[in-house]
Amino acid sequence: MSDNIDDEISRSLDASLGTHVVAISYNVMEAATAVLADHLAPETLHAMKLASGEHLAALLATAYLTAVPVAVDVDGGVDLTFDLKGSDEFHLKTLIGRDDVEFADFEVKSVPGTFREKYLPAATRAMERGEEQPPAHLGKVVSANDVIEASATMIDKAARQLREKSCPARARVAFIVSHFFDRPYVECFQPLISHALAPLDLPEGVDAVWMYLAPSHVLVWSAAGGWSDLLLVSLAEGKTGPEHAYGMELLQHYEGLFLERAKIDKPSPFFFELTVPATDTE
Q1: Strands of 226-233's sheet, edge to edge?
Q2: For residues 180 and 214, is the Cβ–Cβ distance under 8 A?
Q3: What is the DSSP annotation of 69-137?
Q4: Is 249 within 8 Å of 272 (Cβ atoms)?
Q5: More confident residue, 3 or 31
Q6: What confidence score (pLDDT) does residue 16 get?
Q7: Which residue stretches of the chain are H helix?
Q8: 83-128 residue pLDDT tens
């Protein structure tokens, strides 16, 4: 009797306190870059839409679900399908909203913005022609909640496609990507932000929404667990994160590693450095 009461109290506290964190080690993320590059056929890897962040969705889901995609859209199906039979069941409700399914279908959408739609193509064309690049891109600083609000249309679009292409026997997940230069968000360099986010009202038939707020945060809202931060950590005493270029965030380091291993030489708009101009102190 006492054990049952303790269990109920524990579950009640867990449900009422804060948001969740799902942490994986650097080694898991590095392994995901290799196994994904080896698992998918070269033509599939090269068909991924880098501007939309499809490669990032595949990489991040592979790492946190510890599963490689068993299907990638090439003919109008769902963008990514994962076989979950080898995944850790303990985290499935948090990550995909359900633990009673063997497969999860992901639909990937990117939040529209002027950087990727106008500035970046114009700058790329100018560089290819040896011409002067267009004037500096201007972005309006917003909060992470503003980014999530701006994502509503894309979440609904992903939901419609999941209802058409997937089925209730599978977990249905919308993966939303937002570029920093389209919507620079003030919490970019804070380690945890899920506790400050407004709740999501999931569209019909969607079990979870993953969000990559480039370059720093991966977040999940699931029907079962609410908001969660997905983190990279060192689980070994005294071990630090891998070295990566100055101005690069850790997730960008792994994107670059994946692109290299997959032999994808097309430029990714998400692979950039944030630097501060030097000032003359003399």
Answers
A1: 20-25, 226-233, 217-222, 208-213, 171-178, 103-110, 80-83, 69-72
A2: yes
A3: EEEE-SSSS-SEEEE-TTS-HHHHHHHHS-SS-SEEEEEEEE---HIIIIIHHHHHHHHHHTPPPPSPP
A4: no
A5: 31
A6: 44
A7: 2-16, 26-39, 42-47, 54-65, 89-96, 114, 120-129, 144-150, 152-165, 250-261
A8: 999 888 788 999 999 999 999 999 999 998 777 666 566 666 666 6
Phi-psi region of 221 (alpha: psi -120 to 50; beta: other; left: phi over 0): beta
Residue type, 86: G
* pLDDT for the residue numbered 12: 44
User: β-pairing, 171-178 with 208-213?
Assistant: parallel
Report how far residue 36's alpha carbon sits from residue 8's, in angstroms, rounded to the nearest whole number: 40
Q: Supply φ then ψ for residue 190, to 5 degrees.
A: -85, 140
pLDDT bracket for residue 7 (50, 70, 90): low
Residue at token pair 């630090």: 240
Q: What is the dihedral of CA 102, 59, 215, 91, to 10 degrees?
A: 30
pTM: 0.85
The position carrying tokens 């945060």 is 217
Lowest mean pLDDT among 41-50, 104-113, 134-143: 134-143
In the predicted structure, residue 14 carries a pLDDT above the cut 60: no
Query: Angle at Cα 263 formed by Cα 55 and Cα 37, nearest 5°?
Result: 55
How far does Cα 245 stand from its chain's mean position? 21
